[in-house]
């Protein structure tokens, strides 16, 4: 059981405050939907949790430790950070092998995650020829390589076809039901509403809402009410 | 993460893309070409003399620019492709990533350097035979030149890693390195004569056993180039640790 704890997390880029004193506890065994409009600070928050961006203030702990101090980071946390982190000339299999070698993971695991995301047939093709959805699935395969206890996924549904999105939803549900921790971001409330046990909304770097859908004043089956609630929380808050 | 795993991962990164491996052997061809041009044009007045041989064999260092480029691509290429994210997620202690790349590049640079040395020796033997001049490649001066050329490639490859970690855009880093080595250094050396020999490219010529006046000794040149590498590697570690990967 590994949780994510953000404590007063703040990041300023020059004069811009991307994340502003964000405190959040992401619990195991559930899917936490991390919502906000583009530029709200979701990506920066997730990258701080993963040690890729240094906070200006506060800290982010995974299982009680900063990412950089995890003894086996790949076995503890999986991260999906978008479809762009691949060398176009490298095959998916080699991409995964590089990580397995570096992290000391069994190479047999590479075949397992390729199968899981249905990339086995394309595994030896160069990633430069992949569609957006295929790269997104390779990102998920990369995240799952270490069979981690925590999954941090930044807009993982981007570029997936409807079938892929449905599959992803089921996958995240099952992953959390095994007692693992899921933090998944989206800029579309409707997209995560059906999966998430808990909704966290941020806007302009600040926490705007933390609770379940009913507290948000909308049922998951009413997209108009959802949208209205989301906009109420995120639009014009600075004014 | 184990150091061994880190090195194996770095090697696979290189083996799994087409662009990088040819850089290792291309340097040898470049050196042989430069040597041939120099001998054929008669730029070396006295092939039979010791200085003449040193000038000829020193062309082996010309090819070291390609291990340098390989090193730059190993570091800066990761930022360009975005693979740096997965690299740091696998090994969040970033200093270890930089050191792993320095070691990997050094090993590959040495391999490239040995290939270049052998190619240089073969090219020299062919030209000396064609010009009907005696050549003893087992002489002390020949061996020193050829070893110097190999170490030159090793140090340049590692230097490339450090440069590419500081300047993260591959074309910018490559242009900066080339402009520095081929233009700025000679300008500085021309303006402030005593300073020139302490600069990295000029120290590398001394390491390559070039006979020019005003150079450091071969060992001195190697030591100064190593010093530059240590400074650059220190800077690379410092900026890599502090850098936000956005």
What is the overall pLDDT average of chain A? 92
Order of helices and strands of chain B: HHHHHHHHHHH
Low-pLDDT runs of chain B: none
Query: How many independent structural domains of chain A?
Result: 1
Distance between the termini of chain B: 23 Å
Helical segment count of chain B: 11
Mean pLDDT of chain B: 93
User: What structural class do helix, strand and pairing data of chain B support?
Assistant: mainly alpha
Please describe the biggest sheet of chain B, giving its number of strands, its sense, and whether it closes into a barrel: none
Order of helices and strands of chain A: EEEHEHEHHHEHEHEEH
CATH architecture name of chain A = 3-Layer(aba) Sandwich
Number of strands of chain A: 9
Oligomeric state: heterodimer
Number of helices of chain A: 8
Fill in the CATH topology of chain A. Rossmann fold
Indicate the radius of gyration of chain B in whole angstroms: 19 Å
Given helix and strand content, the structural type of chain A is alpha/beta
CATH superfamily of chain A: P-loop containing nucleotide triphosphate hydrolases
- Output the CATH class name of chain A: Alpha Beta
What does this structure look like?
The complex is a heterodimer of chains A (239) and B (246). With 239 residues, chain A is α/β, with parallel strands linked by helices. Chain A has one domain (4-87, 140-234): P-loop containing nucleotide triphosphate hydrolases (Rossmann fold, 3-Layer(aba) Sandwich). Helix content of chain A is 33%, strand content 25%. Chain A is built from eight helices and nine strands. A six-stranded mixed sheet of chain A has the order 5-6-7-3-8-9, with helices on both faces. In chain A, strand 6, helix 6 and strand 7 (181-186) form a beta-alpha-beta unit. In chain A, helix 3 (92-103) crosses helix 4 (108-116) and helix 4 (108-116) crosses helix 5 (132-144). Chain A is globular. The model of chain A has no long low-confidence stretch (mean pLDDT 92). With 246 residues, chain B is an all-alpha fold. Chain B has one domain (3-242). Chain B is 78% helix and 0% strand. Chain B is built from eleven helices and no strands. Chain B has helices at 3-15, 18-40, 50-58, 65-81, 84-90, 94-130, 140-166, 170-191, 193-196, 200-207, 218-242. In chain B, helix 1 (3-15) crosses helix 6, helix 4 packs antiparallel against helix 6 (94-130) and helix 4 (65-81) runs parallel beside helix 7. Chain B is globular and about 60 Å long. Chain B starts with a helix and ends with a helix. Classes of the chains: A alpha/beta (239), B mainly alpha (246). The A-B interface holds A 44, 47, 50-54, 67-68, 70, 73-74, 77, 79, 81, 84-91, 94-95, 97-99, 101-104, 142 and B 1-2, 5-6, 8-9, 12-13, 16-19, 77, 81-83, 85-93, 242, 244-246.
